[in-house]
Specification:
This protein is an all-alpha fold. The chain has helices at about 10-40, 45-50, 50-60, 65-75, 75-95, 100-125, 135-160, 165-170, 170-185, 200-225, 230-250, 265-280, 285-295, 300-305, 305-325, 330-350, 360-385, 395-430, 435-445, 455-485.
Length: about 525
């Protein structure tokens, strides 16, 4: 039946947005539960961070192929399969008894999300007539933005002390309802002209190379940076990525068309997005740890603390896209400006002291960060997508999403490594003969102050200094993102105000987008 005559397009919209909302909220809700998960499962920081980075890494790589899989096998079938996997993995996450189980199930949950997410938009575009597709895409984007705001708040409401399991178990009834609606209100569709091959070897090389580098970053503090295994991983990861590049050059239907990187605007835009996401979203779990375990915030208060940033993002993103369209070749002003706002938010934290709290220490950086994200995200998407012909927008958008998601995963690993290294080396030096391994572990792994009063004073100072080190790295990442964005030259010519194509089926919303 033609899309124009479908009587259930709005029920299709509700069905798809229910699934998308669940996926997007789950991307951000774990940041608030991050401290509780580590305490309850008695997990190290380097292990706990994989509950975020493992999920995001899979969500960055797999959607490149999952949109095409839906075109081949049927979008409804693949969407439902992903939703079943996500819901089942959520139940497993809620019942996990160890950090290893939780990491494995979070990765499986990420696979389900990666299968489902890119198909949400293609299903909507099939259900709505061309004259209403702009509205459908707008509502789709609005649900993605809602996840950014609702995730931290819902996480704060559901996490009680060290009880974090409800953030996953709540997905079971929502997933069941979403599945029931999908079976009834989504019409099967596909693309008979889509290439019938998927680049599985390329996907394995890409995911494997990134995972090796991130594992090396997270394990280096425990094993030592000069450990033969760590050195081998730091070599093997880039080798795998270089092999991926060469393989993609030779494939007729590549996972990532590396020839797109001959376009300078596309290249600098993707690099800037990677670094920006690493700085902003990679640091969020540690900000939650700092607020809850060091400042003593409840999970709810910790979730609400993000509101000054997330509300600004939701408010500014639509306007930054409109302004960016009008700026034309001056579009990079928004991208550079957004990066500099985020860099400034980290600079502000360089003077953080043990006497400061949320209102006089973190609130201003959150406001600056919200301004930066709101300016950067839509404008960077506009610049990158405008640099590539519309006929190749699917690969371009999927590649940009991959850079954002893998940037987040890289940032989580990098910030965890530098904080652990600082605390584990500085605190024993400060305490001298009175150094206690348990006190150092509590400070390094959980941002927790423990021990006798004199040791607590030292631990407080070292934790704050470690958070300042995180800010120093954040300044560097955001500054290089701004420099990369400065080289974005070509954008939409302002007089023409050329309309962008809707995001393609292979593109998935990314954190903060």
């Amino acid at each position: 039946m033609p899309a124009q005559s479908l009587p259930n397009k709005w029920l299709t919209m509700v069905s798809v947005c229910l699934g998308l909302g669940m996926l997007m909220i789950d991307t951000f809700v774990v940041n608030v539960a991050f401290p509780s998960i580590g305490r309850d499962l008695n997990a190290s920081l380097s292990a706990t961070e994989w509950t975020v980075s493992g999920y995001v890494l899979v969500l960055g790589v797999l959607p490149l192929a999952m949109g095409r899989l839906g075109d081949i096998l049927g979008r409804k079938k693949v969407y439902i399969a992903g939703l079943v996997l996500f819901t089942a993995a959520s139940a497993g996450c809620g019942a996990a008894q160890s950090i290893e189980q939780l990491i494995a199930l979070r990765i499986l949950q990420g696979v389900g999300a990666a299968i489902t997410m890119p198909l949400t938009l293609s299903i909507l575009l099939h259900a709505f007539p061309p004259s209403q597709r702009g509205l459908a895409v707008g509502l789709w984007g609005g649900v993605s933005g809602l996840g950014l705001i609702a995730g931290p708040i819902l996480g704060g409401l559901l996490v009680n002390g060290d009880s974090w399991r409800l953030i996953f178990l709540v997905n079971i009834p929502i997933g069941v309802v979403a599945l029931g609606m999908a079976f009834r209100y989504i019409t099967e569709s596909g693309d008979p002209d889509a290439p019938r091959t998927i680049d599985w070897p390329g996907m394995a090389l890409l995911a494997g190379g990134l995972a090796l580098i991130m594992y090396a970053l997270t394990a280096a503090n425990d094993r030592g940076w000069g450990d033969p295994l760590i050195v081998s991983l730091f070599v093997a990861g880039p080798v795998a990525l270089a092999t991926f590049w060469m393989v993609e050059l030779r494939r007729k239907v590549p996972l990532v068309d590396v020839r797109l990187f001959r376009n300078g605007t596309f290249t600098f835009g993707c690099v800037s997005a990677f670094l920006f996401s690493a700085a902003v979203f990679g640091s969020q779990p540690y900000t939650s740890l700092f607020m809850q375990n060091y400042l003593g915030f409840s999970p709810l208060r910790g979730g609400l603390a993000f509101l000054p940033a997330t509300a600004l993002v939701a408010l500014l993103m639509p306007f930054s896209g409109i302004i960016g369209q009008r700026l034309g070749n001056r579009l990079r002003v928004l991208i550079v400006g957004g990066s500099l706002f985020v860099a400034a938010s980290f600079v502000y934290l360089l003077w953080l002291t043990t006497e400061q709290g949320y209102s006089d220490g973190l609130l201003a950086p959150f406001v600056m960060r919200g301004l930066g994200i709101g300016l950067f995200m839509s404008a960077s998407s506009l610049a990158v997508m405008s640099a590539i012909p519309v006929t190749r927008s699917g690969l371009a958008s999927g590649t940009l999403t991959m850079f954002r998601q893998t940037g987040t995963a890289f940032g989580v690993a990098l910030f965890g490594a530098v904080f652990l290294h600082h605390v584990e080396t500085s605190l024993p030096e400060r305490l001298g003969d009175s150094a206690d391994a348990a006190l150092t572990t509590a400070a390094a792994e959980h941002f927790v102050v423990a021990g006798p009063p004199e040791a607590q004073a030292e631990a407080r100072q070292v934790i704050v200094d470690g958070f300042v080190v995180i800010a120093e790295v954040g300044v560097g990442l955001a500054a290089v993102a701004a420099i990369s964005a400065f080289f974005i030259r070509k954008a939409i010519p302002a007089p023409q105000k050329q309309a962008l194509a809707a995001p393609p089926a292979g593109a998935a919303p990314s954190p903060g987008s």
